[in-house]
């Protein structure tokens, strides 16, 4: 009967693939279905009979499947497929680019930490802030710090430093530390000095580091 299908089991490695063989679809149709089910390319397939009465040896593309007397072959038809799957599986997750991520997510995966904008000879401040950014004890102390009532500029300075680090953690872009620069000038009036032309004067990074550590020790330890 034209178009009649025959239950078939194809053994491939440790798998058993169940399908319906339609002789009119030909060998190419059978192999195309097996390629879709297994990923084995058609040109690398070797299909052998396991049931008696099918064909002999490796199935050739020009073999006429309709020439088989299926009434004399035990159902389901048994075949053996040899060949390795070489098709690469597509990506399981969508590729997301860094520039498409929200700022906070981008900051977590950025290859380099976010930078600080120089606000006029503030490189001394930026370098110290970035160096101390990776010190876990300081970061932990800042998160737990609560300014004392009479802390004055020192308490404001540390609170501003904590907010600055929080802002840097939320962005992958260069951040402008305007509030922290202002808090620094309040805590350290000597860093607020300007030159004859009104521009901020250059300052010493080691001096700023020493001052920051002094305030941190006094505020966080009560010293």
TrEMBL record:
<dbReference type="InterPro" id="IPR028889">
    <property type="entry name" value="USP"/>
</dbReference>
<dbReference type="GO" id="GO:0061136">
    <property type="term" value="P:regulation of proteasomal protein catabolic process"/>
</dbReference>
<keyword id="KW-0378">Hydrolase</keyword>
<dbReference type="GO" id="GO:0004843">
    <property type="term" value="F:cysteine-type deubiquitinase activity"/>
</dbReference>
<dbReference type="InterPro" id="IPR044635">
    <property type="entry name" value="UBP14-like"/>
</dbReference>
<dbReference type="Pfam" id="PF00443">
    <property type="entry name" value="UCH"/>
</dbReference>
<dbReference type="InterPro" id="IPR029071">
    <property type="entry name" value="Ubiquitin-like_domsf"/>
</dbReference>
<dbReference type="GO" id="GO:0016579">
    <property type="term" value="P:protein deubiquitination"/>
</dbReference>
<protein>
    <recommendedName>
        <fullName>ubiquitinyl hydrolase 1</fullName>
        <ecNumber>3.4.19.12</ecNumber>
    </recommendedName>
</protein>
<dbReference type="InterPro" id="IPR038765">
    <property type="entry name" value="Papain-like_cys_pep_sf"/>
</dbReference>
<feature type="domain" description="USP">
    <location>
        <begin position="114"/>
        <end position="223"/>
    </location>
</feature>
<dbReference type="InterPro" id="IPR018200">
    <property type="entry name" value="USP_CS"/>
</dbReference>
<dbReference type="GO" id="GO:0043161">
    <property type="term" value="P:proteasome-mediated ubiquitin-dependent protein catabolic process"/>
</dbReference>
<keyword id="KW-0788">Thiol protease</keyword>
<keyword id="KW-0833">Ubl conjugation pathway</keyword>
<keyword id="KW-0645">Protease</keyword>
<dbReference type="GO" id="GO:0070628">
    <property type="term" value="F:proteasome binding"/>
</dbReference>
<dbReference type="InterPro" id="IPR001394">
    <property type="entry name" value="Peptidase_C19_UCH"/>
</dbReference>
